[in-house]
Structure formats: structure tokens, C-alpha cells
Amino acid sequence: PPITLRSLSEAIGIKANQLMRRMMDLTGQLVTINTTLDEDAAIELALEFGVELAIVREETAEDQFDRLLEDARAEETAPEHLQPRPPIVTILGHVDHGKTSLLDYIRKANVVASETGGITQHIGAYQVEQDGRRVTFVDTPGHEAFTAMRARGANVTDIAVVVVAADDGVMPQTKEAIAHAKAAGVQIVVALNKIDLPGAEGNVNRILGELSAEGLIPEEYGGDVPVVRTSAVSGQGVDDLLATLATIAEVYEYKANPDRPATGTCLEAEISEGRGVIATVLVQDGTLRVGDAIVCGEGFGRVRALFDDQGRSIQEAGPSTPVEISGLDAVPTAGEKFAVLEDISQAREVAETRRTRSRGASLGETKAITLENLYSKMAEQKVKSLNVILKADVQGSLEALIKEIDKLENDEVPVRILHRGVGGITESDVMLADASEAIVIGFRVAPEDRAVSLAEEKQIDIRRYDIIYQVSDEIKQAIEGRLEPEI
Ligand code: GDP
User: Fold this and answer.
1) Ranges for the Tr-type G domain (predicted)?
2) Could you read off the pLDDT of 8-25 as tens digits, one per residue?
């Protein structure tokens, strides 16, 4: 909060009149008891009266919110409190390869029949148990949702299952999915699905080769990517898939501290008639309880009720548990983080600060990287690498481009190609660029309409070329700060 002459007077025990008079002498300006001072001025003015003013910064509610999330991320700070938690899994892959069917099969086969015998409801995520080991699935498949969350700063996924239909093989969206998963730095497991189809087995070797070409070397080829044969129709291999996921969780030791205020991410939210705002959240650290003061995005409130993925009312939810909550006063957006604060007034304070801020948000500085601002962002140490998404008209030019870009070795900012592909610039490319602070380079290809509008909204730099050396030239110039801004 700002320091007024009144509060300074109270703090140092000097009459406000005296402070005002001295202040006017010093500045030559009219002041009132409500005139505010910055810290240095307050310290100086106090010194005029022989008082050494120490400014103790009280943690604001927003600071506290940030700190909770920070702590939650720095899980290793208190290893003695950490306990294993189930892995959080998202399913990605080409359209029609069986993402939804696999999610449905896993849910139906493994969720204990609900006591009421009612229909299990969809709440955006669910948890299953196999041999005493639990796995949490995010129930919105596809890399668009995955990357949209990441663009909001939410990394909820530990493991991505990339579904590849055995009768089809690696397709354009499979490649996108792999790029998105890699850019997020999550573990990858491949489900070679539709293995029940006649002739599927005969394609397996070809597909393993296609996966290797995308940098996913299957375990059976000596790599580290498990490839599990599955069928969402017969259920073949689904247990194997669950066991593989649980084993990865054991190897990577995903952990969290259940004995702290909960933090996590909103997966989806809506207003429901009669129940108010209903949000599905994933608890990522700590334990969420009925009655907790919570803030999520611009919403806040006390958790009125908690429901698990089978619609049962519960009192608390620990790490990696998806729950439906009611009690927020505004609808948060998927991907926004939540945190439990000490009391409801703090939660209100954070939410209200955000509401005011978002009204004036359009004035905010752009965060997106462009070739033009690369150099200044480098100088401010805001970029560690130049991330590039590369699309070209044909495979030949793509390879030639990659070769040229690889030659651009430099120590300051390595150039990382997050995704490469043949074809026009898609919405998915722009989303990946947004989530990964990348630029998009199109070589003799145009962006699709939806990609153009999303790029405008997110201020993503899409650059188009038709001469190979121009691409590497401009990148080089940008890194060296010699790139002339485009008119
Ligand atoms: P998504 O677009 O990736 O979510 O794919 P869907 O789950 O909607 O599946 C697309 C189609 O493939 C549907 O008709 C499914 O019934 C079918 N399908 C999915 N998995 C399998 C499978 O393992 N075997 C067979 N034979 N068909 C499958």
C-alpha cells in the first residue's frame, strides 16, 4: 500500500502538521495529509526528524498466492514431506485414431461402480486404479487443449500417451502431438491402437520406423519410448498401458506434499443453474477441503462442496485428484491456477486485484517473441533459445532449411526447432508457438485463416520466405541485433 503522510505520521510518532510543513519546505509543493510518498521519500522525510524508518513489506494476498504456487513447484525443498502421487496423463494423437475410445474404455473398465448405481458423470478428468496403483487421466484429449493450458502457464501433464492407429500409422496430427508433448517436456508413451483390426500386426514394423523418424525410438529398438499395443474395442493391452504408466510414475517418482494448502489447475468450468459456478480442478499439491478459501483466476470463494469423478460428495481431495467444486463467485478459464489462501479476505483481495487488472490489461506489454525483438529480449536475458516452428511446401525444402539453420551455431541463443512439417501453417502451430515462446517460419506456404487470426490475437510472429538463404540470414541478423524492423 502507498505511504501517506498520515500513515507515516502514525508510524514515526511525529505530528502530521509538522510532516506536511517540512514536506512543503523541501518540495515547494502543496501537500495534504493524504499525499503519498514513495519509499525513498518517506525514509528521507523521517530522517529529517531523526527517525530511521525501516520499511517492512507485508506480503500481499497476490504475493501469497504466487508464493504458494512457487512452493508447490519447488517440491524438492522439503523432501521429508513428500509422498508419491499418481501420474497425470493426457491422451494425444491424430483424429480418429482412438483417443476418445481409449479414454472411455479405461474409465468404464476400471472405475468402481458407483454406489448409487447411477451414470458416472464426465468431469474433465478421472482416476483409475489397477493393482493398487492409481493413474489420473485428463479427459479432454488432443494437443489443442493440452497446449492451450500450457499457454496459460499450466503444466498439468506428467505423461502424454500418443495414440497411433495401427491401420494408419504416423499422420500429420501425430507429428504435431509429438512436437507438442516434446515441447512440454513430458514423458511419452505410444499406444499402438486398433491392434484388433485384421492386418494391423503387419504394419507394426513400418510404424515403429515412422515413430523413430520422429525421434521417438521404441524400447524394442533400444530407445526409451514404450510402445504398447492396444485395442479400445476388445480392451487388449489396456492393462498393459496402465501398468506402463504406473511404472513410469514409480521411476520418475512424481511426488507432492499432501499436508499443505492445496494448489492446482482448473480443467473446465461453467455456470450451472441452481448450483452456481461449477469448476473441475485438478489438485496438484496439498489437500483441498470443503470450507477452504480458494482463489482461481478472477473467481474466489469458500469451497462449498467437493465431488469426485463419480459424482460422490467428498470432504477432501489430495494430490493428483480431479474434483468438482462449487463456491466460486466467477467462472475461471481452463488452465488457470487455483490456490487455497489463509482466509477469505485474502482470496477476495487477489480476485479483485485481478478483475481490475484485466480491465486495463490491453495496455500490457507484449510477451511474444519476434525476430525483431529477439535481440532486446536476449539483452534482458528473457530468452534462452530462439524457438522455431518450421513449415515448408515439400520435404526437400524442409530438409534444406533445417540444414541451413543447424549451421547457425552460436553461443548466445541456440536455435531450437520445436516442430517441423510439410504443409500450411495451422492453428496448432500458432498455439504451440504461443505456449513455447516460439516464432513460426513458413517456407513457400501460407497460414490458414484461423492461424492468422490466432496469431494476431497472440501476437505471434509468422514469417514467410521463399528463398532458403533468406531464412538463415534473417535469423542470424536477429541474433546479432542487425535486423531492420519490417515496415
Ligand atoms: P479420436 O478422434 O482419436 O478420439 O477417435 P475415436 O475414439 O473417436 O475413434 C474413431 C473411430 O475408431 C471410432 O469409430 C471408434 O469406434 C474406432 N476405434 C477406436 N479405437 C478402436 C480400436 O482399438 N479398434 C477398432 N477396431 N476401432 C477403434
Assistant:
1) 84-255
2) 888 888 898 999 999 888
